[in-house]
Amino acid sequence: MLTQVMAFQYLATFALVFLTMACRSAAVDPLSPAENAGQSEVGTPAPLLQGGAPGEASRNITVEEATDLSGIQHTIADVAFMQGMIGHHAQALEMTTLLYERSTWQDIRMLAQRIDVSQADEINMMQGWLVVRDEGVPGNADHHAHGTMLMPGMLTPDQMAELAAATGSDFDRLFLEYMIMHHQGAVIMVEELFASPGAAQESQIFNFASDVIADQSMEITRMRRMRGMLENR
Amino acid sequence: MTATMIALRRHHHRRTRLTLALGLITGLLMANQGLAQEQAPHHRQREDPRVGLAGGFLDAGQAAHNMELVRNLPKPEGFYDPEQPAGAPRMPPEPEPEEGEEAPTNPPTRPPQGLSYTNSDLAFIDNYMFVGNYHGFNTYSVEDPQEVERLASFVCPGGQGDVSVYGNLLFMSVEQTRGRLDCGVGGVEEPISSERFRGVRIFDISDIRRPQQVAAIQTCRGSHTHTVVPDPNDPNNVYIYGQGTGSVRDGEELDGCIDLEREGREVVQDPDEEPDTALFSIDVIQVPIAAPDTARIVNRPRIFADPETGSIAGLWQGGDHGEGTQNSRMTTQCHDITVFAEHGLAAGACAGNGILMDISDPVNPVRIHEVVDQSFAYWHSATFNNDGTKVVFTDEWGGGGRPRCLATDAPSWGANAIFDIVDRKLVFKNYYKLPAPQSELENCVAHNGSLIPVPGRDIMVQSWYQGGISVFDFTDSANPTEIAYFDRGPLPGELGTMGGFWSSYWYNGYIYGAGIARGVDVLKLTPSAHLSQNEIDAATDVELGVFNAQNQTIIEWTPSVAVARSYLDQLSRRNGIRASHVEAIDGLLNQFDQPNAELPGELDALAAELEGDARLLPNNASRLNSLAETLQDLSAGLR
Predict the structure, then answer these.
(1) Across the beta sheet with B416-422, what order do the strands follow?
(2) Which chain B residues are within 8 Å of A29, Cβ to Cβ?
(3) What is this model's ipTM?
(4) Which of A138, A154, B228, B538 has a beta carbon 3.0–4.6 Å from B562's, enabling a disulfide?
(5) What is the pLDDT of residues A12-30, one digit of tens each?
(6) A16 touches B at CB < 8 Å
C-alpha cells in the first residue's frame, strides 16, 4: 500500500531526478562531479597526479590522498586569533562611532566609513568561522569586561574616555594616533599567528590574515599622511 | 522528459496524480528559470534580473543578457571536498517523526574545506586551457569549446595558483604558508621550515598529460601573482615579475629576507637604513628556456624609489602630489602587474596606488607616474586597452571573499577606475561597478578580466565573484556602459559561501569563467543593439596562440568583411555616417564573395569619400578612417 510517507519519499526522489533534468537545457549540461571522476569526455581517462619536488617525477594519486587536508586543519592559535580580532574590530567600530558624532572633516569621515563597513562585515565573517567550527563566539561587550586582557594596539578604558572627551581637530588628531596604534596592533596579532606552529595553514585564515596585513598597513600610512596634514592646518 | 512522464503513467498508473504533480512542479521550475533570461533588459537596479536569483549549487537560478552559457565543467575529483562539494558545511536535517521508523542520524558536519580548492586563474596556449587552483591546476583541451575535454589534474597546493604559460613551461604563484616544495597536501607546521615553498613554481608541460615540476623559485613574501615578460632582445630567456603581498619570511627560512624592524608596536627603522628590505620591491626572475631548472632572481628593483631623492620608500613618505591628493599611501608591495611589452609599458596595482612603469628594459622597470584616489583602499589589478592609451584599475575591497556589491555599498568602492594615458600620465575618467546589487550571501567585488577584441572599441569582460560576469564598453572612458552579463544565485550556506567567478577571459571566440566552486563555465556573446553579430564575428576571427591575462599583446585585425561591417555598425549606431554610404558599402560587401572587376575601384572610391567625411566629422573621424582603410585593404586584396 502506498503510505503517505512512501509517497513523500517517492515524490522527493523523483523531484530530485526531475530537478536535475529540468535544469538541463540546450545550453547547460551540468555533469555531477561523480560522473566526471577520472574521466575525460573523449579519449583516455585524465590522470589525477601529484607533483614531485623540483626535478622529480610526478606520480598518480588517489582521490583520498588528494583530498586529505587533515594536515591543514585550524589550530587553537587560529581560534584565539579570530576570537581576539573580533574584540579588536569591535573597538575600532566604537572609535568610528565617536568620530561621526564629532568630526566634520570629510576625508576622515570617509576613512572612518571605509573602516566601519569593512570591519563590521569582517566581524560577521569571524563569527561565522567560529560558529561552524563549534567554537565560542565572544559577545559584543566582552572586551569591556573588567580584567579582560587587551589585544595589541587596543585602547585602555582611560584612552577611550580621553578620545570621547576630545573635540574638533584635537579629536581628529587623537583619533588618528589611536587608530594607527590600533592597526599596528592588528598587524602584530597576524605576525604572532604566523609564528605559531601549524597556524594559518587553513585557507580562510591565511587569506584573512594576509588581507589584514595588506589593508591595515596601507591605512596606517594613509592616516600618517592625514596626521601630517593636521599639523599644517 | 515528456516520454518519461508518459512511461510513468503507463506503468505506474496508480501514481498518476503524483506524476502530474511532479510535472507541474517541474514545469513551474523550468518556467521560472527561463523567465530571468527573457525579461526585457531594464537595468534599473530594482528590476535587474540578477536581483533575487534562486540559490543552489549546480541548479541555482541564472540570469543572462547578451551572453549564453555553452557548457559548465564541474570541478574534477581531487579538487573539491567529497563531503561538501559546494564548499558549504552540510547542516543536519530536521528529524522527522515517522511511524515505525527511527529518526535519521545526523550526518557528520565538518568545517568548510572548500576554500582550499578555490579555482582561480586561467591561462591558454594553442588549444590548451590551464585552470589554476589553490590546490594545483587542471588542464583541458578547448579545441572544441562545445565539448571541452579534461586532460590532467595536478595536485600541488599553496594558493593562489595564479598561472601563466610560455612555450613548454607553465608558471604558478604560491604564497600560502602551507605550500611545500614537494607538492604535498599536508602543509608545513613549523613557522621556519626548509620544506616550505612560497614563490613561483615552474612546470614542464611538454607531456601535456603528465606535467612535472622542474623548478621552484623561493621569494621573500611568496608570490601572490606573477607576470610573464618576454624580452624581444633576449630569446634565450623569459622573465617573470613576482609580486608578493603576504607576510615577509624570516631570514632563517629564506636567506636575505628582512622585514622592517619593530619595537613593540612601532616601526623604528627607517627603510632607507636597511636597503635590503623585502618590502619595497618586486622580484624579477630570469628563466633560461632551455634550462628552466636554473631559473633565479636576477633583480629586485626598487620600483617605488623616489626619483629625486632615491629613497626606496619614496611613496611611503608620500611626497606632496598637490592639492587634494595628500592621502598618499604606503605602497609596500604590488598586488599585480600587467605588462604591455609592445607599448613598453606596465601598470602596477600596488596597494593604494596605481603605478605606470616604463619597461623598455624588462630587468629594470622604472616608475614614470603614479596616482592616488581617496575612494580606493586597495587596487588589485590593471588592464590596458589595445592601443595602450587607457588603463582600468580594480579595487578588490574586501579581498574577494566578502559581499561588497550590496545596494548600500558606495559605487566607487570595490569597483573599476578608468584612466586615460596622456603624455605618459594617468588621467582619471570614471568608475565602473557591477550595476546589479548582490545579496549578503554573495561575495562580490571587481576582479580579473580581459579585453574582447572588437575592432574600434574598448570592451572588457570581467568577473565579479558571485556578482557574475559583466561585459562593459569603455571606448568613451568617461562613460562606461554594460553590454552583457551572466549571473547565478548564491551558493548554498546560511552564512554565505565563497564562490563565483575568480577570473573570466576571452579566448578565441569564447568566454571562459573560472568558477571557484562550480567549475569552469564556457560562454558565448550574443548580438544586441549594443554589439552586432558582425562585431562578434570580427572578435571571434582574432586567433590567439597564447593568452596570459597579465601579459597583453597588441591585437591586430586582418582586413575582412566582418571587420568592415563592424565599423559600419558602429558608425550607424552613432549616426556618424551618411545613410547613402551605409547602403553603398553594404551593397559592395555583399558582392565580396563573387567580386566583379569593378569592385576594387568602387571600394577605393567609397574609401576616399569616407576620408573626406572624416575631415568634416572629428567625433567620428577615427572610425571613418578605419573603415576607409579596411575598404582599401580589401580592395588591394582583390587586385
Answers:
(1) B379-384, B390-395, B416-422, B425-432
(2) 71-72
(3) 0.81
(4) B538
(5) 555 555 444 444 433 333 3
(6) no
